[in-house]
Design brief:
The protein is mainly alpha-helical. The chain has one domain. It contains five helices and two strands. The protein has a two-stranded antiparallel sheet. The longest helix is centred in the N-terminal third of the chain and has 28 residues. The chain starts with a strand and ends in an 11-residue tail after the last helix.
Length: 150
């Protein structure tokens, strides 16, 4: 039995993505590869947050520090998560859906950055939400939804 779940947009984003069917186990990334990527992703997240915290102490240009932290994490994720992509997932995630997902998350990133002066925690919340979405899509076989090149 296949159940379909929607590729969840970030909190506050009104765009809805079509439901993606559950893929068979044979179409999912290898558990060891996924676990390795998740470990790397957590290290990258913590490093980006530490750099952001340090930058907050050194500059009054909070938005620039926020943008750098967000861009660093998003770029790393998009350039590495593709190794978890499966042919079945790539087949179902075509250009327009990938572009809509990327745009929705970019808009949410920009919103977090613009709120960072008044709420520096918005950046951490965004980065954790973004990584959670990437983790979920990769585990379901849809890493191509976020990858720079599927």
């Amino acid at each position: 039995m296949h159940t379909a779940t929607a590729a969840a947009p970030p909190p506050g984003v009104t765009a809805r993505f079509p439901a993606l069917p559950a893929l068979p186990l044979s179409a999912l990334p290898l558990p060891d590869a996924l676990a390795e990527w998740l470990r790397e992703a957590e290290v990258r997240l913590e490093a980006a947050l530490a750099d952001y915290d340090a930058a907050l102490l050194l500059t009054d240009r909070i938005e620039l520090a926020a943008a750098a932290a967000v861009d660093e994490l998003m770029s790393w994720v998009r350039s590495t998560v593709g190794r978890l992509s499966t042919p079945e997932g790539r087949e179902l995630v075509r250009g327009e859906l990938r572009q809509r997902c990327a745009l929705a998350w970019r808009l949410e990133a920009d919103a977090a950055v613009s709120r960072s002066y008044e709420d520096p925690g918005a950046v951490e919340t965004f980065m954790r939400d973004y990584l959670a979405m990437c983790r979920e899509q990769a585990a379901r076989g849809y890493a191509a939804l976020v990858a720079l090149s599927p």
